[in-house]
Amino acid sequence: MKKIKWIIIIIIIVITIGGISFLYSIFGNIKYDLKNINENQKREIIALLNCSEISNNIELKEIQVPKVYKDIYYDIYFKTINEDIKKYITESDIYGRDLKELDNNNYCCTIYRKDDKSIDILEGIVNGSNTTSSSNDLDAVEDYIQKSNNIENNQSNNNSEDVTQKILDNKVVHSGIIENIDEKSIYYFDGDSKKLNFQKNSFSYINGRTFMAMELADVKVGDYIYPYNKQILVFRNLSGEDLNQELLYNLTLTNEERIVFVNSVEIEEINVTAENTAIVKITYGDIIGNDLTNERFSELVEFNTNTKYYSKGHNINSVNDLDNAKGNINSILLEKDSIKKKNPAIVISFECDDT
What we know:
The chain is α+β, with helices and mostly antiparallel strands. Helix content is 27%, strand content 31%. Helix 2 (39-48) packs parallel to helix 5.
């Protein structure tokens, strides 16, 4: 009896495995390795991902296609992915792309059939891996993606509030990150995720960190804008040394030269080298906080006999008192020429909110 029971169990297991294999052969995925595709084919895929501007940073792994629904969607898998790639793929509202996190920082982007063109492009790549698209074909792919972006952006832009007159009337208007720029207007989302726009040729533009005049052509999607005094302050979407240089320059501006924001600074290390001289390590981040980046930077600066101290509580009057300034710094002014030299930048004045 037991022998018959085990035979029945084995038969059921075999049938189950066979059934699963059969169903997978019908409904499973076909995998296409992308390591041998040529540069033109890679460019086509990247165009569909809306990542043409950062194509050099993208490493593709494979495409998976459902056997049954082959003409409906394709899954594109990445070898590696970073925040820039995520941003470019997801910043548009276009129906047809869906970036999904799988596990351990593995991602795939599903390309749905928005119309015949998108799937046809991928199908042509996986079915003709030895063919090379012509330059005209590639331009047509990127033109198709751009037109798709424009259609979706126009639909979204129509639902935004025009705040041009409010800015011209010097009324309070929320700031935010630029989402789109067209021939007429700049569009952005405020902190409440409300989409706003203004007529771009109606205003002058000023770098929000250096307070130097900017050309409209230098204002980009991803920058942070702050309407102020009938003009637009622009905090460029920078990182690394480019951002550091703008923040350092901000520390050389007097109260009269600044328009609105003052860079925040913290003291990290103090090394008194003489009676009235100290080499101090300061740290600082972006002026507008973490709206664009949470990067922080450090710099060595020199307090000396010419440094002027402004202490609210009258407790900080020399380098020997700098420990009391930690966590209470209001502003610091550096000598302009000194930030470009290898030696520590010179501190002209220092203001503290100690009590």
